[in-house]
Amino acid sequence: MRAADSIAAHFDRSREAMERAATDAELLDSIAEIAEAITRAFRSGGKLLIAGNGGSAADAQHIAAEFLSRMNYDRDPLPAIALTTDTSVLTAVGNDYGFDLAFERQVRGLGRAGDVLIAISTSGRSPNVMTALAAAKRLGVVTVGFTGEGPRDMAALCDHVLAAPSSSTPLIQQIHIVAAHAICTVVEDALFGGKPR
Ligand SMILES: O=C(CO)[C@@H](O)[C@H](O)[C@H](O)[C@H](O)COP(=O)(O)O
Ligand SMILES: [Zn+2]
Q: Which positions bind Zn(2+) (predicted)?
């Protein structure tokens, strides 16, 4: 296949996945519920923790930056921390306790009841994401899972699940980041009055 055809096919698959997401009423409701949970946490002095591996680690950082810096307009910063960024913490915990606890230990150290954890796993079963969710549940942190379609071990540990309607990791990630932008927009508007964009 010519590179241009392969690229066009990639855009086509992405558009189809976005169309499935945009018309999935259950998915849109769950995204709205997640935005409400995050708004509630910020209003009561809680914070947002975000974890994920690989491309989803980048998404965790991207989402934290939207809240902490700004997304659509100038406003006060909102407390969001990506658990994927501190190489000293990640290597110390990985080296001393194992990679499966890389996020769990940060959740235990930083998480407080009323905070929200967004745990991103396209497969829904990465061990370090699962242990982070279990620790968050024990602490009374509201647990949100960003995942894909199909069987998801993480669902049992989540108060809210965003199940992107695809089984392809990159397409699931694309839906996650669109959903995260939508969530950040709804939260900004709820907390700061929805100034014009
Ligand atoms: O970005 C990609 C694929 O698009 C990869 O880096 C991907 O995130 C990694 O393979 C992750 O380790 C996958 O983990 P998970 O989403 O199944 O929890
Ligand atoms: Zn990727």
A: 62, 66, 173, 181
